[in-house]
């Protein structure tokens, strides 16, 4: 253990929080800038998970965009924070066959999907050539070192609009994450538009738990829990949403949805 690691653990212990760890692949992203995009690494901080509690985080990389074109206002489009990792985790773990990823970001999702043995091919759709160039810079700086060649070779990146792109091969799994914020009003309509083109066997999109909750909770109070809430979730997805969304059976997904909402309320109440 280095002195820096030791000091970080001592700081986390003094604040009464655990240091965040994850069993998914976590590349060592270098800092760098391409056009209006930049990757920066943070120092020690705190972050509340999407479905878990409060964590200590150190060295967290984030993808920033110059929103005013003058370098005066940078917006965070993605970060490897506990909140974002947990909000993308199910997509990585349940991807299969030919998987399509809408939105490249830092490439973290695509890489972890390629490492999933159930995945045959990963097609990433990204409309911004500078984001693609930044990922290529990551490759050149050995971010993907240590990964099996067969995993890296699964990934193909296409410069195209996620809302317009048509596949050349049947799609088994669609993962969509093209939005700056969770719960954007057009999210579900965007996913429906993508699916009309892609016709994937299964879909998972960023923040779908919040969308499901907003629609299902109108019919049944999620705080009550139990089998009635689970039925409300299933009926919402099959009827109201009408898309083949991932509803994982390896965990109590309806309960997870309710937990995500509680954690989000807690997250905003502390700001």
Descriptive report:
The chain is an alpha/beta fold and 271 residues long. The chain folds into two domains: 3-81, no CATH class; 84-269, Rossmann fold. 38% of the residues lie in helices and 20% in strands. The chain is built from nine helices and eleven strands. It has helices spanning 3-15, 82-94, 108-114, 129-140, 149-152, 187-198, 208-216, 226-241, 253-269, and strands spanning 32-34, 37-41, 45-48, 54-57, 61-66, 74-79, 97-102, 119-126, 155-159, 173-176, 202-205. The strands form three sheets. Strands 9-8-7-10-11 form a five-stranded parallel β-sheet, sandwiched between helices. It has a four-stranded antiparallel β-sheet with strand order 1-2-5-6, with helices on one face. A hairpin with a 2-residue loop joins strand 1 and strand 2. Helix 7 (208-216) packs across helix 8. The model has no long low-confidence stretch (mean pLDDT 91).
SSE diagram, text form:
Layout: H1 3-15, E1 32-34, E2 37-41, E3 45-48, E4 54-57, E5 61-66, E6 74-79, H2 82-94, E7 97-102, H3 108-114, E8 119-126, H4 129-140, H5 149-152, E9 155-159, E10 173-176, H6 187-198, E11 202-205, H7 208-216, H8 226-241, H9 253-269
Parallel strand pairs: 7-8, 7-10, 8-9, 10-11
Antiparallel strand pairs: 1-2, 2-5, 3-4, 5-6
Helix pairs in contact: 2-3, 7-8, 7-9
